[in-house]
Design brief:
heterodimer; A: mainly alpha; Cytochrome Bc1 Complex, Chain D, domain 2; two-stranded antiparallel sheet; 2% strand; B: mainly beta; Immunoglobulin-like; four-stranded mixed beta sheet; three-stranded mixed beta sheet; globular
């Protein structure tokens, strides 16, 4: 009686590739577990060497903060996997923040930034911590004037954004350009995907199968960046409403963005509140199917993993640590 | 025999109650995308969303004519919604914000 009209099943192929420039550029047979070589960037802020260099100086420059003491790198420290090793960040006046500092690795590929996805791109994100009283406590009204008074920066901004003035917009664009260079290096897992059978051990190989299979991690940590860019409540003991603040839907209460697992062995402690000190604790959390069951994602349930299976999963996660990016600290413009 | 006998009254019903037999439009959720980016339907018609991925999806809209949240549903499952308020709907998946489509419901 009812007609079911198929809405263009053909469009599937097109839709699958729509997520971003880098994805579009991939050949159809590209390994979904390997990072696309091309890093996406908005047309309005195409990366150039000058922009990246300028952004790097700004990223490491504590003068971006109200106290002239906190830089982006204070919390996103390259020596600590671009995070800070703390359960939650330490902000202005040494006050702890409400959430843990995520790595900035591969954030170029994130469709939404922050644990709750409240910023849409890196340009918008960069002004968040600067202007936040709790984080860098900078007066966004005067920061451009402050930097314009530094001769070395005037020259750099001119070279990077000719014709545009020094403003919060160009500051944010430059920082975003630098962040787009912070991408994961080749990990043993990648070498194994490319055919080097000995690049990871048998335990890690079994761990990858568990990850995609019995342990169901791949339902959310999917693809080369090990994230679906989605939001889930995984049943942590936490009062934080998370994504609910952006999308007031019941299922989003306590939901957070699936973080990348690239370099995850370097970025303890884990979760939006840093409540787990080790990957072993994280695996135990999933094995028992989470703790708080309110709005728990239907993809989280007790797994019944054996001792060996837990170890295999851990060994697999460790193979995601890429070759470190060599970071030469910039001499800050004066 | 029986089928034949029922066919006539139900045909009549169909003419009398167009809404009850209004067209249903099928939209698939596959590879974290909707199979249609935009859909134009008439008031009273329905849309059935079918999850063809291995993982859960959700359907919601905060659009003015009539906000809704159909919750999360897994592989192979469907959610059907009758659009009985005309207007423009932004339909999204709460789990995967990249998944969005529009439904235009004309009078
Ligand atoms: Cu979805």
């Amino acid at each position: 009686m009812k007609h079911l009209r198929l809405c263009m099943a053909v469009v599937f192929g097109l839709c699958a590739g729509r997520a971003g420039a880098a994805v579009d550029a991939r050949p159809a047979d590209a390994d979904p577990w390997l990072r696309p070589a091309q890093v996406p960037a908005p047309e309005s802020n195409a990366p150039t060497a000058e922009r990246v260099e300028l952004g790097k100086a700004l990223f490491f420059d504590p003068r971006l903060s109200g106290s002239n003491w906190i830089s982006c790198a204070s919390c996103h420290n390259p020596a600590l996997g671009w995070s800070d090793g703390l359960p939650t960040g330490m902000g202005h006046g040494m006050k702890p923040l409400g959430r843990g500092t995520p790595t900035i690795l591969n954030t170029a590929y994130n469709p939404l930034q922050m644990w709750d996805g409240r910023f849409k791109d890196l340009e918008q994100q960069a002004l968040g911590p600067m202007g936040s009283g709790a984080e860098m406590n900078q007066d966004l009204g005067s920061v451009a004037t402050e930097f314009a008074a530094i001769a070395g920066y005037r020259a750099r901004f001119d070279a990077a954004y000719p014709g545009e003035s020094i403003s919060t917009t160009t500051i944010a664009k430059a920082i975003a350009s630098f962040e787009r260079t912070v991408v994961s290096g080749e990990a043993p897992f990648d070498r194994w995907r490319r055919g080097d059978a000995a690049a990871i051990g048998a335990s890690a190989q079994r761990g990858f199968e568990l990850f995609k299979g019995k342990a169901e991690c791949g339902l959310c940590h999917m693809g080369w960046n090990f994230t679906d860019n989605g939001f889930h409540n995984i049943g942590l003991n936490s009062e934080d409403p998370g994504r609910y603040a952006q999308k007031p839907l019941k299922s989003m209460k306590g939901a957070f963005k699936t973080p990348t697992l690239r370099d995850v062995a370097l970025t303890a402690p884990y979760m939006h509140n840093g409540m787990y000190a080790s990957l072993e604790e994280v695996i135990e959390h999933y094995d028992r199917g989470g703790d708080l069951k309110d709005n728990l994602s239907p993809s989280i349930r007790p797994l019944g993993l054996t001792v060996v299976e837990k170890r295999d999963l851990l060994e697999f996660l460790k193979t995601l640590t890429g070759a470190p990016m060599l970071v030469v600290l910039p001499q800050l413009p004066q | 025999m029986n089928t034949l006998r029922y066919a006539i009254p139900s045909l009549l019903l169909m003419a009398m109650l167009p809404a009850a037999f209004a067209e249903d439009h099928l939209v698939m959720q596959k590879d974290k995308a909707f199979s249609a980016k935009a859909l134009s339907i008439k008031t009273g018609e329905s849309v059935t969303f079918r999850n063809e991925d291995e993982f859960f999806h959700n359907i919601f809209s905060l659009s003015d004519p009539a906000p809704f949240d159909l919750g999360a549903f897994g592989k192979g499952q469907t959610r059907k919604l009758v659009f009985d308020q005309p207007g423009h709907y932004e339909v999204e998946c709460a789990i995967h914000p990249e998944m969005r489509m529009t439904v235009n419901v004309s009078k």
